[in-house]
Please model this.
Amino acid sequence: MIHKELADMKLRSIVIFFLGAGLFFFVAPFHRLTLEMLNEYTQLENMPKLLERFVPKNFVERLSDWSFYIYTQWFGKNLGQFVPILAIIIAFPLFARETENGTMEFLLARSSRKKVFWSKSCIAIAVLTVEMLVFSLLPGIYSLLASKDLKYELLGAYTIHTLVGALFWFTLTMLFSVMYDDQVKPILTAVGILASSTVIGIFKPLRFMNTYSYILGSKIISTGKMDVIYTVSLLTVIAVILLSSYAIFLKKEF
Model:
């Protein structure tokens, strides 16, 4: 069972790893070049109002600080935007593919439902956790090797936000993978909820529904601290979704 799950996830995890690592090395080494380009824009005499609004001069000045640059451009932009997508990609075929291909009956004939569910879910969670930890720790390793002055005290908070955010979207998509009998519905449902919750979260009373704000570390960059309440709330929701998926899997007819 373990070897089968690792083999099933091998291609996806390798592709995600190289995409994430490639994206980081597209961002980190070009710190100075990015600053020079933004400075050229901000020094334009007739700078468009729209560009001035999205790239204010004081923001460009703060980007000269390596810590601010890497935390806002890596965690707060490039990696953060892809965290839910990467989690959905790992989770959507987990159970739905077995059901769609008719191999679930074969698995259940050889192992108990409990063993099948927890083997598949725990291995996938382990792969996702390793990927997120590697992507989160890359800035620290790169800064150390390149002798960059990074505020390491913030790295732990960003790592927790990234990992918990990824686990939330993973478990939610895995729930749909258990419920549906084909691979298309889980990914469409998860992406639909991601898009709609992000839009709904624009409104202040419903801001808590926008998980992107948490994953991108908006509170960390403004306060220097992890959002403890949101983290505990998401972990609680993750546990509820995981146990609900298990209960549905135990009773589902294949």
User: Anything to note?
Assistant: The mean pLDDT is 89. The two ends are 18 Å apart (CA to CA).
